[in-house]
C-alpha cells in the first residue's frame, strides 16, 4: 500500500536515527502513511510496522495514543477544534457547537458529501489566540469567531 | 555499597539496587502490582509508594535506587495514605464483584485491597466497561474491565517471550490491552501471562470457573515434556488434576513454564485413557482382571523364550518414562536373556557397537546458559523443541551479549538476536558443521582432522569458528534434529572435533523429557537398538508409554514389525486406534501425576516426585506393574517396596554430586570422520521433519486446548517457491508425498504450502501427526507429485 514516494520519505526519517533504531521513526512514518492514504487502516499500520521491523501492536499503540492519527476514514478536510481549558474559556466549545450546527454533523462525524470531518482536539499551544481550529493537522486558524468560521468554511471547497 | 535504612533496619544495599529489591531482601513487604523481579520497571501502578526522608513526595519503591544514607518508611502515615489513595484510584474502575470473578481467592488486587485499601470509595459514578476479547484457546480475555493496566503481560511478551503480542492501545481512561486486530496469542510461553496478571483480566481458559483455588490440593511435580524438567505445582480436586502452575526454581525453570507444561494436564482426563487391562481373545480385545492380563503377558513372554529364544523379545520405552520404569523394563528384558531394549524411538543413527554411548547431557548446568559468551546450536527448532532453553538464550543474548548461532533446517524465528543463522538441507547438516570445524582448525593453526580434506569453509562458518574461539565461555549444543539425523553419530563426531579445537564444551539439549534418565537407567541396548529391533523384526514387543505409530523415527517400519509379531504387550496410559489393532495385551499404567518416580533433566538434576492423585480406574504405576511382571517371570531382583528403592539402586545417593546431580555423564566420542556423511543429496527432494510442540508425546496430543492453537494446525507440505515450481505445484493445492523404506512405500496427501524458510529442494512435513504417520523416515528422500 505504501507508495515508493512514501517509502522514500520514511527512509529519510529512518536515516535520522542510529542504525538499528529505525523503529524510532514510527511517528513520522505513520504520519507519512496517513498523509498519503487519508487515514491509518490496520493494514497500513501493519505495513509501516513491518517496514520498520517492529511488532504491529507496538505501532498500533503509537497510532492509538496520539489524536492526530485518524484510525477511521475522514473527510477531505478535518477540522479539529481545541476544547481544552483556555480555549473553552474563550469560546472553544461555542465554536465547536457553531460548527456542528452549521455543518449539521456531530463530533467525529463527516458531512454526507465527504467534505468535512469534525474533531475535538487537545491544546495546540496557541491559547492567546483562542479559540483555535486546526485544518488537516497542518493549518492553524486562530480567533475562530462565528464570522471567522464562516469565512473558513467558504474557503474549503 | 550504599547503606540504607528501611523501617528502622540498617541494611547494605547492592550497588544499583532499588528500594523494592533491598526491602525484599530484608523481608519487608512493599505492596505492588506492576513490579516483577523478572520484568523491566514500569512504575505505572504506583502501589509501591513509600516515604523517603527529605523527599518532598512519596516515591515508587520499584523505580527508586537505594542511595547511601537513605531512610525509607514503608508504613509511615504518609506512605499508608499514599497507598490507600492509589488503591482507591485502582478500584474506581475495577468491578467489586470478587465472588463471581475467576481470580477470586488468589487475586493480588483483592489481597492488597484488604491489606491497604479503605473501607469505602469517594467514587460513586458509573464504572468503565471494557469489551471482552478473544486471544485464542489458552488465555481468556472475557473480563477486561478488571484490567488495572500494569502492563506486565505486555512487558512479558517483549522481554521474556521475545514477541510482543499484547499492547496497550489508546490513552488515559480509554487504555486497554489488545492484540493486533484481535489476533490470537501464539507464543509457546503465553500461559505465564495468566500467572503474571495480578487481577482477573487474563485467566486460564481451560481452568476458568472449574474450581476455586482454596478447594485445590497443591503438590509438587516435574514436567515430562522436555529435558528442562520444569518444576510444577499440580493442583487437584477429588483426585482429578484441575490445573498446573510453575513452581519457582531459579536454577531450572525460574518462575516460568511453557504452555505445553501448563496445559497438557487436560490430556490426563482424556476419554482415551486406558482404565482396564485388556487381552486379545479370538481377535477381540476383552477387558480382564489384572492378574489375568499379567499372567497372559508373562506366559506369552516365557513361551517366546522357550520356543524361539530370548533374542526374539524387544522392548521400547518412551523417553518420557520415569527412571524407575525404564530400569525395571530393561531388567525384565535382560532377565529373560535379551539385550533388545531402548528408550530412543526417534533416533535413526546409533553409535556402532563397541563405542561406549555415554549418558549424553547438557554439558553444564541450565542456569549457566545465561552466562555463556558464545553458543552454537546445531540442528534444533529451538523455540518449539525446548522453549525454556530458548528463553534463557534469549535473555543471554539480550543482557549478556551472548553470541548465539543456529545451524538449522528452517528459518523459524528463534525470537532472539542471532550472531549467525545458517539454514541448510538435512543432508547438508554434517557438511555445514564440518565447514566450521575446518575453519576453526585453520584459524587455530592446528592440523585439520582427517576426512575434511575436501571441505571448503565459507564466510558464515569462518564467523562461527571465530565466535567460538574468542575468549570466554563457549558451548556447542546438539539439538533434537542433530541427534535424530541419519548421520547423528557423525554430527556428534564433528562437534567433538570442534570442541577439541576451539576449547568450547559440547552439550546435548536432549530430545525428550527423561532422556538423560534413560541413559542412567541402564535401558541402553546391548543388542538391537530402537531402530534395528524393527528393521530386523522380532516375535515379541513390549512397549512402555509410547505410541509407536507416532513416536518412532519411521512409524511405518515400526508398525510393519509390530504387525508381524506374535506377541505385543503395551503398557500405556492411553489407548489409540492403532493399539486396538495390534496390541495383544494392554496394561493401563499411570501417567506422571498418578505415580511416584524420577526424571533426570538435561543438566543431570535428579528430580523425584510423588503421585498427585490416585490412578484413574484400574491403572497402576508402571514400576509396580513391571515389578509384578518380573516376579511372575521368576526373575531375581524384583522385590522393591517403593520407587525410591528402585531409584536408589540405580543412582545410589552417595554417587550424586551435591546430592542432586547424577555423576558419570559423558558427551565424549572417539570415532574417525566419515567423508561419506559429508556428501549432500543431489537431484532428489529431501524431507525435513519437525516434531510440532503440541504433538510431541501422547499426553500433549490429547490436551484439547493446546490442540486448538496455531501450533497444533494439521501439517502441510511446506516448500520454497523454487521447490514448488520444480515439483510443478502451486501453494494450496493437494500434493501426494511418498517415501520408500525397507517396510515398503508410504504415502500421504497433504496441502502444499509456500514457506521460503525451507531450504530449496526440501519439503517440510511434520512428524508425530496421524496425517503423516504413513510416511517413512523423518529425514531422507521424499517424492512429491501433484494429485
TrEMBL record, chain A:
Gene3D superfamilies: Glutaredoxin (3.40.30.10), NADH-quinone oxidoreductase subunit E (1.10.10.1590)
Entry EC number(s): 1.6.5.11
InterPro entries noted in UniProt: NuoE-like (IPR002023), NuoE_dom (IPR042128), NuoE_N (IPR041921), Thioredoxin-like_sf (IPR036249)
Pfam families for the chain: 2Fe-2S_thioredx (PF01257)
Residues at which [2Fe-2S] cluster binds: 82, 87, 123, 127
Cofactor mode of binding and number, as noted: Binds 1 [2Fe-2S] cluster.
Reactions catalysed according to its record: a quinone + NADH + 5 H(+)(in) = a quinol + NAD(+) + 4 H(+)(out)
A GO term, aspect molecular function: metal ion binding
UniProt keyword list: 2Fe-2S, Iron, Iron-sulfur, Metal-binding, Oxidoreductase
Transmembrane segments: none
Cofactor requirements of the protein: [2Fe-2S] cluster
NCBIfam families assigned to the protein according to its UniProt record, in alphabetical order: nuoE_fam, PRK07539.1-3
Family statement drawn from the similarity comment of this UniProt entry: Belongs to the complex I 24 kDa subunit family.
Protein name per Swiss-Prot or TrEMBL: NADH-quinone oxidoreductase subunit NuoE
Gene behind the chain: nuoE
UniProtKB/TrEMBL annotation, chain B:
Family designation: Belongs to the complex I 75 kDa subunit family.
Regions crossing the membrane: none
PANTHER family documented for this protein: NADH-UBIQUINONE OXIDOREDUCTASE 75 KDA SUBUNIT, MITOCHONDRIAL, RESPIRATORY NITRATE REDUCTASE
EC top class, as a word: translocase
Ranges for domain 4Fe-4S Mo/W bis-MGD-type: 216-272
Gene3D superfamilies on file: 3.10.20.740, 3.30.70.20, 3.40.50.740, Dimethylsulfoxide Reductase, domain 2
Catalytic activity, as annotated: a quinone + NADH + 5 H(+)(in) = a quinol + NAD(+) + 4 H(+)(out)
Organism this protein belongs to: Rhodocyclus tenuis (Rhodospirillum tenue)
InterPro entries given in the database record: 2Fe-2S_ferredoxin-like_sf, 2Fe-2S_ferredoxin-type, Mopterin_OxRdtase, Mopterin_OxRdtase_4Fe-4S_dom, NADH_UbQ_OxRdtase_75kDa_su_CS, NADH_UbQ_OxRdtase_ferredoxin, NADH_UbQ_OxRdtase_Gsu, NADH_UbQ_OxRdtase_Gsu_4Fe4S-bd
UniProt GO BP: ATP synthesis coupled electron transport
UniProt domain 2Fe-2S ferredoxin-type: residue ranges: 2-78
Free-text comment on the cofactor: Binds 1 [2Fe-2S] cluster per subunit.
Name recorded for this polypeptide: NADH-quinone oxidoreductase
GO molecular function: 2 iron, 2 sulfur cluster binding; 4 iron, 4 sulfur cluster binding; metal ion binding; NADH dehydrogenase (ubiquinone) activity; oxidoreductase activity, acting on NAD(P)H; quinone binding
GO cellular component, as recorded: membrane
Domain of life where this protein originates: Bacteria
Primary role: NDH-1 shuttles electrons from NADH, via FMN and iron-sulfur (Fe-S) centers, to quinones in the respiratory chain. Couples the redox reaction to proton translocation (for every two electrons transferred, four hydrogen ions are translocated across the cytoplasmic membrane), and thus conserves the redox energy in a proton gradient.
The 4Fe-4S His(Cys)3-ligated-type domain, residue ranges: 78-117
Amino acid at each position: 500500500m505504501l507508495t515508493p514516494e512514501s517509502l522514500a520519505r520514511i527512509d529519510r526519517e529512518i536515516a535520522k536515527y542510529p542504525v538499528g533504531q529505525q523503529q524510532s521513526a514510527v511517528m513520522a512514518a505513520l504520519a507519512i502513511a496517513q498523509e498519503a492514504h487519508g487515514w491509518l487502516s490496520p493494514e497500513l499500520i501493519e505495513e509501516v510496522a513491518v517496514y520498520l521491523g517492529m511488532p504491529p501492536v507496538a505501532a498500533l499503540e503509537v497510532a492509538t495514543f496520539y489524536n492526530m492519527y485518524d484510525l477511521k476514514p475522514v473527510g477531505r478536510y478535518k477540522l479539529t477544534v481545541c476544547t481544552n481549558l483556555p480555549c473553552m474559556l474563550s469560546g472553544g466549545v461555542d465554536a465547536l457547537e457553531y460548527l456542528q450546527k452549521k455543518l449539521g454533523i456531530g463530533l467525529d462525524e463527516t458531512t454526507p458529501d465527504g467534505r468535512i470531518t469534525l474533531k475535538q482536539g487537545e491544546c495546540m499551544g496557541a491559547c492567546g489566540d483562542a479559540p483555535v481550529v486546526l485544518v488537516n493537522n497542518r493549518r492553524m486558524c486562530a480567533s475562530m469567531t462565528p464570522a471567522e468560521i464562516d469565512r473558513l468554511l467558504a474557503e474549503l471547497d | 555499597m550504599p547503606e540504607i535504612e528501611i523501617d528502622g533496619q540498617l541494611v547494605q544495599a547492592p550497588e544499583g539496587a532499588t528500594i523494592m529489591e533491598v526491602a525484599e531482601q530484608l523481608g519487608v513487604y512493599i505492596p505492588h502490582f506492576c513490579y516483577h523481579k523478572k520484568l523491566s520497571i514500569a512504575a505505572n501502578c504506583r502501589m509501591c509508594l513509600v516515604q523517603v526522608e527529605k523527599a518532598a513526595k512519596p516515591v515508587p519503591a520499584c523505580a527508586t535506587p537505594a542511595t547511601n544514607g537513605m531512610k525509607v518508611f514503608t508504613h509511615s502515615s504518609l506512605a499508608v495514605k499514599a497507598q490507600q489513595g492509589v488503591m482507591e484510584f485502582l478500584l474506581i474502575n475495577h468491578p467489586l464483584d470478587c465472588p463471581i470473578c475467576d481470580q477470586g481467592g488468589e487475586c493480588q488486587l483483592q489481597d492488597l485491597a484488604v491489606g491497604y485499601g479503605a473501607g469505602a470509595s469517594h467514587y460513586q459514578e458509573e464504572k468503565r466497561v471494557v469489551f471482552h476479547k478473544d486471544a485464542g484457546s489458552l488465555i481468556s480475555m472475557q473480563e477486561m474491565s478488571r484490567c488495572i493496566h500494569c502492563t506486565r503481560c505486555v512487558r512479558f511478551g517483549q522481554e521474556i517471550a521475545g514477541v510482543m503480542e499484547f499492547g496497550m492501545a489508546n490513552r488515559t481512561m480509554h487504555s486497554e490491552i489488545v492484540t493486533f486486530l484481535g489476533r490470537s496469542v501464539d507464543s509457546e510461553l503465553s500461559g505465564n501471562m495468566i500467572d503474571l496478571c495480578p487481577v482477573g483480566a487474563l485467566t486460564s481458559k481451560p481452568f476458568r470457573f472449574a474450581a476455586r483455588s482454596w478447594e485445590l490440593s497443591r503438590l509438587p511435580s516435574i514436567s515430562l515434556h522436555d529435558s528442562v524438567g520444569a518444576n510444577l505445582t499440580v493442583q487437584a480436586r477429588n483426585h482429578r488434576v484441575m490445573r498446573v502452575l510453575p513452581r519457582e526454581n531459579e536454577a531450572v525453570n525460574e518462575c516460568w513454564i511453557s504452555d505445553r507444561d501448563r496445559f497438557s494436564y487436560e490430556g490426563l482426563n482424556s476419554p482415551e485413557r486406558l482404565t482396564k487391562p485388556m487381552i486379545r481373545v479370538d481377535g477381540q480385545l476383552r477387558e480382564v482382571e489384572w492378574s489375568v492380563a499379567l499372567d497372559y503377558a508373562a506366559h506369552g513372554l516365557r513361551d517366546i523364550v522357550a520356543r524361539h529364544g530370548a533374542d526374539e523379545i524387544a522392548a521400547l520405552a518412551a523417553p518420557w518414562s520415569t527412571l524407575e520404569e525404564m530400569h525395571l523394563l530393561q531388567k525384565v528384558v535382560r532377565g529373560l536373556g535379551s539385550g533388545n531394549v531402548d528408550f530412543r524411538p526417534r533416533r535413526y543413527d546409533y553409535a556402532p557397537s563397541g563405542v561406549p554411548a555415554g549418558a549424553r547431557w547438557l554439558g553444564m548446568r541450565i542456569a549457566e546458559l545465561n552466562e555463556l559468551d558464545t553458543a552454537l546450536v546445531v540442528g534444533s527448532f529451538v523455540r518449539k523443541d525446548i522453549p525454556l532453553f530458548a528463553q534463557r538464550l534469549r535473555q543471554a543474548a539480550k543482557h549478556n551479549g551472548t553470541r548465539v548461532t543456529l545451524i538449522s533446517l528452517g528459518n523459524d524465528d528463534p525470537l532472539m538476536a542471532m550472531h549467525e543463522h545458517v539454514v541448510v538441507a538435512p543432508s547438508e547438516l554434517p557438511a555445514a558443521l564440518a565447514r566450521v570445524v575446518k575453519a576453526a582448525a585453520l584459524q587455530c593453526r592446528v592440523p585439520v582432522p582427517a576426512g575434511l580434506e575436501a571441505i571448503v569453509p565459507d564466510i558464515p562458518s569462518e564467523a562461527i569458528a571465530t565466535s567460538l574461539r574468542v575468549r570466554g565461555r563457549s558451548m556447542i549444543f546438539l539439538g533434537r534434529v542433530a541427534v535424530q539425523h541419519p548421520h547423528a553419530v557423525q554430527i556428534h563426531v564433528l562437534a567433538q572435533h570442534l570442541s577439541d579445537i576451539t576449547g568450547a564444551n559440547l552439550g546435548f539439549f536432549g530430545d525428550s523429557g527423561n532422556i538423560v534418565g534413560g541413559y542412567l537407567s541402564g535401558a541402553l541396548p546391548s543388542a538391537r537398538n530402537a531402530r534395528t529391533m524393527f528393521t530386523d523384526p522380532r516375535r515379541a514387543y513390549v512397549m512402555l508409554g509410547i505410541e509407536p505409530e507416532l513416536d518412532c523415527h519411521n512409524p511405518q517400519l515400526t508398525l510393519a514389525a509390530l504387525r508381524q509379531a506374535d506377541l505385543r504387550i503395551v503398557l500405556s496410559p492411553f489407548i489409540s486406534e492403532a493399539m486396538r489393532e495390534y496390541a495383544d495385551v494392554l496394561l493401563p499404567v499411570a501417567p506422571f501425576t498418578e505415580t511416584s518416580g524420577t526424571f533426570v533433566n538435561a543438566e543431570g538434576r535428579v528430580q523425584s516426585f510423588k503421585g498427585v492423585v490416585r490412578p484413574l480406574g484400574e491403572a497402576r504405576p508402571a514400576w509396580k506393574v513391571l515389578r509384578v511382571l518380573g516376579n511372575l517371570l521368576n526373575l531375581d531382583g524384583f522385590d522393591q517396596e517403593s520407587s525410591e528403592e528402585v531409584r536408589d539402586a540405580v543412582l545410589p545417593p552417595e554417587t550424586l554430586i551435591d546430592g542432586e546431580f547424577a555423576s558419570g555423564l559423558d558427551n565424549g566420542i572417539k570415532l574417525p570422520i566419515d567423508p561419506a556423511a559429508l556428501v549432500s543429496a543431489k537431484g532428489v527432494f529431501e524431507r525435513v521433519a519437525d516434531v510440532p510442540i503440541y504433538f510431541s508425546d501422547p499426553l500433549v496430543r490429547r490436551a484439547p486446548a493446546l490442540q486448538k492453537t496455531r501450533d497444533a494446525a494439521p501439517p502441510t507440505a511446506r516448500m520454497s517457491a523454487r521447490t514448488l515450481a520444480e515439483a510443478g505445484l502451486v501453494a494450496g493445492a493437494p500434493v501426494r508425498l511418498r517415501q520408500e523404506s525397507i517396510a515398503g512405500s508410504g504415502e500421504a496427501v497433504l496441502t502444499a504450502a509456500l514457506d521460503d524458510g525451507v531450504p530449496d529442494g526440501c519439503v517440510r512435513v511434520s512428524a508425530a501427526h496421524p496425517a503423516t504417520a504413513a510416511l517413512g523416515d523423518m529425514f531422507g528422500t521424499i517424492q512429491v507429485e501433484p494429485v
